[in-house]
Amino acid sequence: MNSNQNRDTFIGGILLLVVVGFMLFSKANTTSRESASMTSYPVKAVFNRVDGLFEGDEVRLGGIRVGTVGPQILNADFRAEVILYLDKGVDIPMDSAAAIHTAGLFGSKYVVLEAGIEDGLLQSGSEILYTQGAVVVSELLGLIIDEGKARQAKQSTPPKSPPSKSPSKSPSKSQAQSPAQQGDR
Question: How far is CA 141 from the centre of its chain?
Fold first, then answer.
């Protein structure tokens, strides 16, 4: 019975360590979100599709990380509203555009900002008006495959030949020669 008590105590201790670990992780995650809100400002972008975009994904400008993706909700027009937390100190023109891109063919998604030319800058609570939603790779591949099949079918169908005329008799050699040539014989 003593060995059972030792085993139960050992398992209980490990379980306690796991619970404490989860609590510390949760606190660290909350602290990092609070510090992120101190070093970033939220802007809103509305997309038709955000397939595969998750909270915490990167926001990039010129290939450089300038923020993170925040919460996403479905608005009254059935479009995806996404909050983007942009790093303070990164001045982004108000007429900038946001697009959802994929890292590689099947990689993770991220938001790409294309800087505009307007003098006014995005502020906390601003909305990015020019957006392009996510491209679903499987749909794109389906379109490419369908286009290839259509071209292949078009090439394999024999072209229609014009109606054939009855063979005409070609003139004999003697008929085809001019009278001057016939006199030379």
Answer: 13
Residue pointed to by tokens 């809103």: 44
Half-sphere exposure of 131 (CA within 13 A, CB side): 21
How far apart CA 56 and CA 47 sit, in angstroms, is 17
In the numeric block, the tokens 């972008």 are attached to 45
Q: Which residues pair with 133 in a beta bridge?
A: none
Q: Which of 15-29, 32-46, 81-95 has the lowest mean pLDDT?
A: 15-29
pTM, to two decimals? 0.59
Q: How does pLDDT run across 150-168, given as a tens digit for each residue?
A: 888 888 776 666 666 655 5
3-state helix, strand, coil in the chain (%, to 5): 35, 25, 35
